[in-house]
Specification:
mainly beta, five-stranded mixed β-barrel, OB fold (Dihydrolipoamide Acetyltransferase, E2P), Replication protein A 70 kDa DNA-binding subunit B/D first OB fold domain-containing protein, NA-bd_OB-fold, two-stranded parallel ribbon, RFA1B/D_OB_1st
Length: 146
């Protein structure tokens, strides 16, 4: 299954995706409050999707995460990505549950690009400025500007 074919809600299906980046997320209104780990996945159809590991599960999953590796993620919930947290073009996100598994794929890996670039010209960036619709400035190694 690819991220574009995921249905909303809890799912027993799985996806194969490369973990491009992950970072700790804080509450915007209370920066000292840890909300969890945000992940950025890329699938074999070159589609990026965000993942969220809630704070109470972060320690369980953190030691399994390695940027650049391909994983099989299973037993998760698919939700709508709030615009203020949106860092991809995808409207959905993957929310980790207690039963979510994330296993590295070593053999028979699908071909998944190691990176994705979003080329934006100045006018496109000017429109996005101060809208909270995308977090383009957060990933300078993944974005090129003409």
């Amino acid at each position: 299954t690819t991220s574009s074919s995921l249905p909303l809600g809890k799912s027993s299906q799985s996806i194969h995706a490369r973990l491009l980046r992950f970072w700790d997320s804080s509450n915007f209104s209370n920066p000292g409050e840890f909300k969890g780990i945000t992940l950025l996945f890329l699938d074999e159809k070159d589609s990026m999707i965000n993942g969220i590991i809630p704070a109470e599960q972060a320690n369980h999953y953190r030691r399994s995460l390695q940027e650049g590796d391909i994983y099989r993620v299973a037993h998760f919930e698919v939700g709508i990505c709030p615009h203020m947290y949106k860092s991809t073009e995808h409207t959905f996100l993957i929310r980790f549950l207690e039963e979510t598994t994330i296993d590295p794929v070593i053999n028979n890996c699908p071909h998944i690009s190691p990176q994705k670039f979003m080329v934006r010209n100045y006018e496109q960036l000017q429109i996005l400025a101060n809208t909270n619709l995308e977090l383009s400035g957060m990933f300078p190694t993944n974005f090129l500007i003409n």
